[in-house]
Design brief:
With 372 residues, the protein is of the alpha/beta class. It has helices at residues 26-29, 31-45, 61-77, 98-108, 129-142, 157-160, 165-172, 175-185, 212-216, 229-235, 258-268, 348-356, 361-364, and strands spanning 81-84, 88-91, 116-118, 147-149, 191-194, 198-201, 237-238, 245-247, 254-256, 272-275, 284-287, 292-295, 309-314, 320-325. The protein has one domain: Purple Acid Phosphatase, chain A, domain 2, CATH 3.60.21.10. Keywords: Hydrolase.
Length: 372
């Protein structure tokens, strides 16, 4: 409990509670399982910087199924609005770029020393989706209160059937494993809440999101179909172009403007939204009146873009900073084109202006009304 309740002026941002959640230690609860996970993590780490072998060389399909069964139980024990406390680092799309995920860990630190929240899109597009998702699952089983995994739109069967993961499962282990992954993906939490004040999801807001219990009450397992809250959380995009809701050029879900974000911050009692889902040139981008950050966490997305990767760091007071990983030079044979700053947003100037005035949210909360 925080002892300085008197210091909280009306309208100011509440200090994060220093209440320590009891640490879950798998090595104490189940030493054999901890030992097994340590061994899995070690084997998976051996695939970093060695692309001459893939996961098939270090892990059987049966072992992966056992890992899936364990991790889906942990997901079900968490809320569909998965809660974590700052300090924490928030990680965006990975898209099967296993080598880049490990390079990112070299930069930002590893679990359990760092606490991390991932915003989904682990699979598809890149070559090592199984490696990415199984490593993250093993870390979740081993250190469940140091790593939080949210669901992305690519963790749905209709999407990862088409964009690479199905074929990857098929040639590495057989299609049976693909089905096991889908059952597990249907149990991954749909959104996250950091220190009660920072709402995280893969895509964005939804017209159906009237309060945070709306997310908590989504029953699982769940499969997002074609419209509604589940689809919006995984698919919607912010825009600097307007205030309200707009049709999306993706042909699914919506785009939402600054007014929607401001209204959501008020009605949901949050300070900030962090989401992923779009390639941004610097790996992060502030939008919609500095109340929303897009984060993308692998460089050279699909070897088609020249984007940098980044993660959002929130300290114990919810002050924001970024860690950025620049793209390695592409081989000459790869034709690279620059990513638009926000793939679907034409108002680049507003986006840049936002980024140049990044300030800690925690201190600014009370006087936000006078700005913009
Ligand atoms: Mn996405």
């Amino acid at each position: 409990m925080s002892a300085d309740a008197n210091n909280n002026k009306p309208g100011s941002v509440e200090e994060p509670k220093s209440k320590e959640t009891p640490k879950f230690d798998l090595a104490k609860e189940n030493p054999r399982c901890a030992e097994w996970m340590d061994d899995c993590i070690k084997r998976l780490n051996s695939l970093y910087k060695d692309t001459s072998i893939n996961i098939c060389g270090v892990m059987s399909g049966h072992e992966i199924i056992a890992i899936i069964r364990l991790v889906e139980n942990i997901f079900m024990e968490e809320s569909n609005l998965c809660e974590a406390e700052a300090p924490i680092k928030v990680v965006g799309d990975i898209h099967a770029q296993y080598q880049d995920l490990n390079r990112l860990f070299d930069l930002i630190g590893r679990v359990p020393e760092e606490k991390l929240m991932f915003l989904g899109d682990y699979v598809d597009r890149g070559p090592q989706g199984i490696e990415v998702v199984v490593l993250l699952f093993c870390l979740k089983i081993r250190y469940r209160d140091r790593i939080f995994l949210l669901r992305g739109n690519h963790e749905t069967p209709s999407v990862n059937k088409i964009y690479g993961f199905y074929v990857e499962c098929q040639y590495k282990y057989g299609v049976g494993l693909w089905w096991d992954f889908q059952a597990c993906f249907n149990r991954i939490p749909m959104a996250g809440l950091i220190s009660k004040k920072v709402l995280c999801m893969h895509g964005g807001l939804s017209p159906e999101l009237v309060n945070l219990d709306t997310i908590r009450n989504i029953p699982r397992p769940c499969e997002p179909l074609d419209r509604g809250l589940l689809i919006d959380l995984l698919w919607s995009d912010p825009t600097n172009k307007g205030e309200g809701w707009f049709h999306s050029i993706r042909g699914i879900s919506y785009m939402f403007g600054k007014g929607v974000v401001e209204q959501a911050c008020k009605s949901l009692d949050i300070d900030l939204i962090i989401r992923a889902h779009q390639v941004v040139q610097d790996g992060y981008e502030m939008m919609t009146g500095r109340r929303l950050i897009t984060v993308f966490s692998v460089p050279n997305y699909c070897a088609q873009f020249t984007n940098a990767a980044a993660v959002v760091c929130l300290n114990a007071n919810l002050q924001i900073s970024f860690q950025q990983m620049l793209p390695p030079a592409l081989p000459d044979s790869c034709k690279a084109k620059a990513a638009p700053a926000i793939a679907v947003d034409l108002n680049l100037e507003a986006a840049r202006a936002d980024k140049e005035t990044i300030k800690p949210f925690a201190k600014e909360g009370s006087k936000e009304g006078g700005k913009s």
